[in-house]
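for the record, two folds in this file. i put them one after another cuz i was lazy. first one right below, seq on top, structure tokens after. the second one comes after a little note so u can tell where it starts
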Amino acid sequence: MENAIVIKELNKSYGNLKVLDNINISVRKNIIFGLVGPDGAGKTTLIKILCGLLGHDSGEAEVLGIKIPEGISKIKNDIGYLSQRFSLYTDLTVDENIEFIASIHGLKDFSKRRDELLGFTRLTKFRNFTAGKLSGGMKQKLALSCTLIYRPKIIFLDEPTTGVDPVSRREFWIILSNLLKEDITIIISTPYMDEAERFNKIAMIDKGKLLAYDTPANIKSVMNQDIVEVVCSPVRKAYRLLNEIDMYDVQIFGDRLNVSSEYESINVKKIENILRENNIIISDIRKIPPSLENAFIHLIKENS
């Protein structure tokens, strides 16, 4: 299948700070592709380069077969970009914001498409509300509708669900999944590992370096080891105790610990005994498959 994006040995620095370090990625058309990593990983910089908003120092980048940034004018109407910050007009209504974006792209007969998008994003009954009165989730849906009004072939979404409530996040993902029926390629960045599970393929990035580039399932398989999940209290005391065992790798997630080892099969009974002997209350302890978050932390340690 033809690629929507091809990136070869891409580098970008700000002064002495290397923001992107020799990135190599290709993305097939009509999939949801994720750029996954923490704040400062280089995700936004990469998206801005691919949208022609920012130059790069060396390497090559192609979007829809066109070299970027040289040929960006040829495909500007084929690219949609939804930035981290809401950038539409808060004093215009939902309808007026979509109309404004449509006019910028030279669209005249867009009313049917607008009605379809408002229905698709469940914003029809809010069409006369000013954008400033919408919730965070509704604002993102409006921004997406404005991006889709001119039918781009590829859309870039930069952390679109950051700060959005869980219900709106779930609705947003349903909308994005349904978009694939319109033959659109979706490039989305996120710091949330649970969201990354939804993508067809992902690139894990940290401090400008590409740690992994594969399907979520294949990336999780790099951790060829057991994970023992322990829900306990006080969790930080338990973390300190288990972290003192050299053969254990311990990660803390809220009220629970994930314990793994590259050197031995984890003995659940041994962990249970250590914690109970030190007056740790265990609510639950069990073996679980590795998560993307486990794999990401594992890859960071391997590459540090």
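(here's the note) second protein begins now
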Amino acid sequence: MKKMLRSQFVLAAAVALAGVMCFAQDGAATYKAKCAMCHGPAGIPNPNMAKAMGIKPVSDPAIKALTLAQIEATVKSGKGKMKPVSGLSDAQVKAVAEYFKSLK
């Protein structure tokens, strides 16, 4: 009985970890496909793009202060010169927002 419970626990932990890893990769892949061309692969935009579009790097205090909900809203609705990002599910928007917050 204990062996069976332990096996079930290990299986559940492995499935949960795999789900988390896929979620994180999805955010990174979505960012690379939809965001990096303007915001830069590491969250630091090209100087010309930054000037033309008014994009700040992730290290800027105003960007660091953004909540996940604010980033998600910006992705969905746009802000300033940024147009809404189309074709993303709510889960993808959340994943890309979390990935963006993780950039240093």
